[in-house]
Amino acid sequence: MSSGRSGERSGRHSGLSDKTLAALDRASGKLASASIAAMDAEFAWFGRMPADQRASVLLITQNGVSGFAAWLRDEREALRLTTDVFRAAPRDLARWISLRQTVELVRVALQVFERQVPDLAADDKERDILAEAVLRYSREVAFASAMSYASAAESRGAWDARLEALVVDGIVRGEAEESVFSRAAALGWDPAAQATVLVGNSPSDDPPTVVFEVRSRAARLARPALLGVQGSRLVIVLAGPAADGPDEQVLSRIASAFGDGPVVAGPTVASLAEAHRSAADALSGLRAVVGWPTAPRPVRSHDLLPERALAGDPEAEWQLIDRIAKPLEDAGGALLATVEAYLEAGGVLENCARTLFVHPNTVRYRLRKIGELTGRDATDPRDSHVLRTALTVGRLARSRGLW
């Protein structure tokens, strides 16, 4: 008696007969077609999907029905089977429909299940068992769909991270190639946006921690950012203006994402196509910043021109000549003689005036003109150091026939 009953009731859901389970197997196609029809009737966007994507949804639904019948036989198979339902679909299905839309499709399919599956029962007792089983199975499907989209998001995130690292590495190496720009565009970067490269120490050996630190600060600033961790060094490419004034504070706030030690910001360039220049200056500044122990954080690469020139950076030497030495010479002998005499006098105005045989007010006037011309105030200790280095580099370059 006992063995005969066992032959009739084979599923773990006691009370379901083999006949009912077989009916579920045979009804998979009908249930799937009814679900697709219901989706088509309720959602206009579903009808506009490409045929291959609609076929993918049909496949998922058919496998879902088959999975339900198998689940009724052995609940231990539930997680594997329901996950396989979503894995059976093409990988790019998530690109066509969002998680919210997927939830809506699952809801419609389950409504069809709730209406039609109980009718396959042999009696009222089995009807109740099937109604309850549909609700429990819907929970498994919900978890499976969430896991599927989470996995897709994780894969997308890993791919984006690799793509981002390639873009940053290309910028650092000076590759102004189309591939760099197309990859950046794929990451959502506006190719026309201004860009500033910042370099410094990484705050952590754990890449996800670094990404979170940088992303959270960039989000609060409403600025797109690309980042790359290269050994112990962190490189950030920040979008948008970063000139003097309020925009300069943006650099200070993003610099807090770096680890201990100096942070150097290259010049703000017009677009990503010129970001390699910003990166080159920033990296040159990072190598030379040790020569200025009290440098601010972050420090602009152009404020490190003396240290960069002393470290052997020819670009820094040329910038000192182009921005300071040459304009002073082109302006006439009076300004050049005044700044040289002022620096030699140790910044003592009266001594400079006596050396030049002029009134101190004349020296003051000329120093103001020098500041307007070069952007450097000779009365400021740091700027006087920059002026002296620029004049020295200019003389050396002239002696070598380079200027």
UniProtKB/TrEMBL annotation:
Q: Which Gene3D superfamilies match?
A: PucR C-terminal helix-turn-helix domain
Q: Which InterPro entries does the record associate with it?
A: CdaR-like_regulators (IPR051448), CdaR_GGDEF (IPR041522), PucR_C-HTH_dom (IPR025736), PucR_C-HTH_sf (IPR042070)
According to the entry, what is the taxonomic lineage of the organism? Answer: Bacteria, Bacillati, Actinomycetota, Actinomycetes, Pseudonocardiales
Per UniProt, residues of the PucR C-terminal helix-turn-helix domain are 335-392
Say which family it is in.
Belongs to the CdaR family.
Q: Which UniProt keywords apply?
A: DNA-binding
**CdaR GGDEF-like domain spans which residues?**
174-288
Single GO MF annotation: DNA binding
Native organism is Herbihabitans rhizosphaerae
Name of the protein described by the UniProt record? DNA-binding PucR family transcriptional regulator
The keyword Repeat is assigned to this record: no
Provide the transmembrane region boundaries: none
